[in-house]
Amino acid sequence: MGRAPPVIDFTPFYGEDKAARSQLEEEIRNACLDFGFFQLRNHGIPEDLQRGILRSQMKSKTNTTKMLVNLTAAMNGYDLRTLKSSPKGDLKEGYFLAQDLPLDDPYVKARKWAQGPNKYPSEVKEPSTWKKTVDDYHSVASRVAKNVLSVLFDTLGGGMSFWMSFASIQLPCFVCFIIPHRTPMLRRIGAHTDFGAVTILLQDSTGGLQVRDRKTEEWVDVEPISDAVVINTGNLMMCWTNDRYVSNLHRVINKTGAERYSVPFFFDGNPDFLVKCLASCIEEGSVAKHAPLTVSEWMEGRYADTFGGSKKATKEMVEV
Ligand SMILES: O=C(O)CCC(=O)C(=O)O
Ligand SMILES: [Fe+2]
C-alpha cells in the first residue's frame, strides 16, 4: 500500500513560536524530500474565498464551450484550451488567468512570457462578481504561495535575498480552473509533474487526485480535506535543489463519473530570475544536474513540450 502525502498545519508560520516554526520547517523539508506533495491546513486562504472560487466555476460551466471558442491563443495569460498530456487527450477543460496587466505595463510591452490582460468571460452571470472573485483569489493565493516558498527556501538555506528576488515580482501566477465532463472515462488528467515553483491546489470533495509513492511505485489517493489545500513542488524546485526536492508525478482519475472542480494555482515567480542550483545543494564531488535557465526560458520550454511549439525543455509529460 502506498503512503498518502502528509498533512501539515501552517499555523506556526503566522505565529511567534520559534520552536513551532522549526518543527514546521522540518515537516515541510521531509515532505519535499519524500513526496514533493503535502496537504496544508490553516494556510491563510479564507474559507469564503475558497468556496467562492469553486462556485464561480460551476456558474460558468454551461458557457465553457463558448469560452473555449473565444479564448484560444498563445500562452499569454488569457489563454484557454483543453490540456493534452497523452495522445488520447485529457478529460478536462480549463482556462488560464493570470495577473491582469494593462497593455502599457512594462512587462507586457517587453513581451515577457505569459504577461498581458486577462480575458474574462463575459458569458457568465454577474461578470463583475466573477472577475472580482478571480482577482481576489489570485492575490490571496499569491501571498500564500510566497509564504510557503519562504519556508521552503529557509529549509534550503536559500535566504531572504534569494526569495525576495524570485518572488517579489509576482507576475506569472496562473489560476486554472478544471472542469471535467461527466463521462465514465478513466483518465481526467494524465500523469505529469508541475512546471513551476509551487502549486496550490484547491479541490472539491469529489476526489480522484492521486500522487505516485516513489518508494512503492503505487498511486495513492490525495483525499480531499475540506479545510486543506494541496501543495506540490514543481520542476523549478528540482533545478534549485539538484533533484533533492522532488517534483512528483500526479494525475487525476475518474472514480465516480461525477463532475469535479479544482483550482490549481501555479506560482512561477519572476520571469527574469535565473534558476540555478543552490550551492548548498551540490554535494562534494558532484555537479549541477540542470543547466541554469531563466524562469521564462524554463516555462516556455515546458509548455512547448506539452502543447507543441518550437522551444523545448528537457522533461516530457508521461502517460501512466
Ligand atoms: O485538478 C487537480 O486535482 C490536479 C490538477 C493538476 O495537477 C494540474 O493542473 O497541474
Ligand atoms: Fe499538476
From TrEMBL:
GO terms for molecular function: metal ion binding; oxidoreductase activity. The keyword Electron transport does not apply. Keywords: Iron, Metal-binding, Oxidoreductase. It comes from the Eukaryota. Residues 172-269 form the Fe2OG dioxygenase domain. It holds the Pfam family 2OG-FeII_Oxy. InterPro entries: DIOX_N, IPNS-like_FE2OG_OXY, IPNS-like_sf, Iron_ascorbate_oxido_reductase, Oxoglu/Fe-dep_dioxygenase_dom. Belongs to the iron/ascorbate-dependent oxidoreductase family. This is Oxidoreductase.
